[in-house]
Give the backbone structure.
Amino acid sequence: MVKGTRRFAAGVTLALCAAVARAQAQTTAAVRPLDYTRFVLGNGLVVLLNEDHSSPIVAVDVWYKLGAKNELPSQTGFAHLCEHLMGEGSPNVSVPERVLISSVGGRSTFWANTTEDITHFYYTLPRNALETALWMESDRMAAPLTRADSSHIRAVRETIRQERVQNRETPVFGLADPFTRAAMFAGGYANDPLGRMSAIDAATADDVKQFCAPYYLTNNAVLSLSGDFTTASAKTLIERYFGGIARGDDPPSAGQVDTSRLRGAARLVLEDRNAHVATLRFAWPSVGYSVPDRLPLVALASLLSRDRTGVLSKLLIEDRGLATRVVAKAFDFEKRGIFQIEIIPRTDASMTTIETLVDSVLSSFSAQSIRAAGLDAFKRMNAVQAMTSLQTRAARADTLAHGEIFAGDPAVYAKELAATAALTTSDVARVAKQYLGANRVVMSMVPAGRLDMVSKPELPYVLVSSPAGRM
Amino acid sequence: MRRHLVVLALASFAQSQAATAQQLDRTKRPVITADSPFVFPKMETQQLANGLRVVVIANHSVPLVSVRAFVAVDSLDDPVGKEGLYVLTAGMLHEGTATRTGAQVASDIAMLGNSVTSSRFTTTPANLAASLEILADLLMHPTFPDSALARLKTTLASRKQIELQSPATVPYRVLLKQLYGTTNPFSRIGLASAATMETIGRDDLVRFHSAYYRPNNTTLIVVGDVHATDVVALATKAFGSWERAQVPEALSRTAHGRPRTTLYLADRPGALQSYVFVGALGPARTSGDSEALDIVATVLGASGGGRVYDALHERRRYMYSGTPVAMTWRPAPSPSTIGGSAAIATTKTDSALIQWMAEIRRTAQEPPTSEEMARARAALVDALPAGVETDDLVANRLMSMLQTGVPLDFYNSYSERVLTVKPDAVREAAAKYLDSSHLVIVVAGDRKTIEPLLRAANIAPIVLVDDPSK
């Protein structure tokens, strides 16, 4: 499984913590903190334990710091290929991961996920099966990629071929994300985590092992558990199963990931023969996870498009009747981010008119209009979401591991919540001015043959949708 | 936040690792000891004087509360010729009330910090009363302003076009139409056509709302950090003035007979995958066969061990992901759908269907093995706690019980009922409901490539179809 972008923060990431009670005065109930224990084994494995006895289950989440940004152009899709191979079994586990885990009552949305930055394996299972999960995870961590042989690679390649068709070629405008990144970034963030089929078809077992093995190490991994165990007993089990695995050399660091290739606007047009409805996308390179400006950018996205009170959604949908849907999102990778606005026009509306209106809103964005758009309401929403989003054990294990890897602090969400509560209207106006400038991607997505719908067609654009352009 | 100091821990770990590394035998899989049986959270039910049912499940482990309002009405209640009436009515509930304009509804919700719709919200206990007041206002006092109605029609028309972009939309509609029959409301599922939407005016919405949105047709579900007595008091305050009235009888939803297996083929030129549905009618959730069918669906369709899933994914890699067999329970007494779908590599469409049908036939003849029964029990029984892990999941589970018409104590004895099903009863349920000679197969794909393959494979008579909503 690959998700193009792991998370977009609809609000600041998520907590059940004491800070919520301070941020939201009307919350009188005592807010239970998301308590956790962190320790590091001698071999470098970072362990995060969130003990919670309110349901007899445990979420298991194992993260490796290996993602698409670590790939060279000839290796695109290798991190994801290795995710699949890791799921096929290990020396003492003869069946695929999901077969074993579901046979003991475990379940997962996608079982595993490869992003720009990381690969992780995750599921929730009954508490009495925790040791079985640790046995399986340690077996594949102790001897990773034992299924990286030609017959497994041949089989996995066919699965990935169908995954690509299902998630990129079939969905209408499913190639919009890879084309946006390729236009925006130089270096590793230009890679589509799903990779290019040509690179995957050419990959040999040796290529794959050589690329992935330096990352599948205890000293490049985080094990995060949330649920019904005692910290002491989990610790004993983890030492038993993972303690004896040897650490490796320091993994190679990613190459160049933090450069934008945009010099002005890259105007792209994507055609799709299955499309009935057009879409206009604006995308700007923005900041990585740990950069403080990420928080006002998240606020900005909400103020632009939240429900019917957002500045752009209200203008384009209600006041002018030009669009049926407006979504602004702030995506965050480890080292970079993307700020994106997508608009679905009404069938009779001109995308040129919409682009002009969007630009006039963005250029006149001021502290005053931000206040009117409800920065206070956003903060209240963020505080409530901080609690509602962390209900599942899977979300808690995931949040702790994400904080550990992306910010060096599992509890970074608590600090972000406080920082968001302190945002001012001028913080938000400043990032709008600073980041939403001329260096951007403008993509008109249109039904095949409808180039007349392209926004501002008089400006030069690149058509990225011909069959040869399929990635 | 606790944080253990790495430095202090290191020395002792190094020692214990040396000791445990020698003892650990990785070939030995840990033994799982039995856990105490699953108990569904305890609920309290009360009825207000006007007939509104209030169901409360207290859970004080997290300071949150999940609320759902279930009104027993849906698209199946749209009168013929007015398809789309339910969707428009439900959408217009948010466009203004007797005391709030649409803009005020939006800004009042924004000030709360949590979203509130006419059917749900999740929030902190401190926001419960204010959120419930808005939800009640939306359900009880909508004004249906004409300008918002015009805008909503445009939005729904656009959404319908977007829905048609999905490769699953057309084959799923064909499946429902063939299973339930053209006169059954199920065959009209999906968004209404522009033509019928045009005939719907504000008066239709007012009448439809007045007929169905009544306290005696509504259940309020409240799960979380609350006490039942407080909830009943809040509900009485918010809904007490809602007047009860006789609600119309449901339209007939009886499905027609069981035609011979037929393959319906819809063209999607150039498609790299075929979207395949295979299905049949099953009983309602209230039937005594329902647990045996849950096992049938797991034995055939579960990812990691399901017969059809493994045949198409693990063994042959014809598909990436899919749910080839599952149970879709409908509002009782309507028949359920047993079956599912997968996106299959175009050139493997025939091979995949041959495997798919072979596994269906085998399941009607061979009872599940003991390993398959154990896997099904793990999926259906051992995984139950994870299915009701949070207040939201508990509330959603109650909603689905109300929708499928089972008593609210359905899950109290569900585990026992599953555990008593014998392998041969599973085979019998498969033979009865998933009979290979009475299936509806729908394939949407690149006709010029797959039609010759499907004809040569001779799986079933082929009928060419178009989008049934056109």
Remarks:
- The radius of gyration of chain B is 26 Å.
- Chain B has a mean pLDDT of 91.
- The CA atoms of residues 373 and 423 of chain B lie 7 Å apart.
- Residues 146-164 of chain B form the longest helix (19 residues).
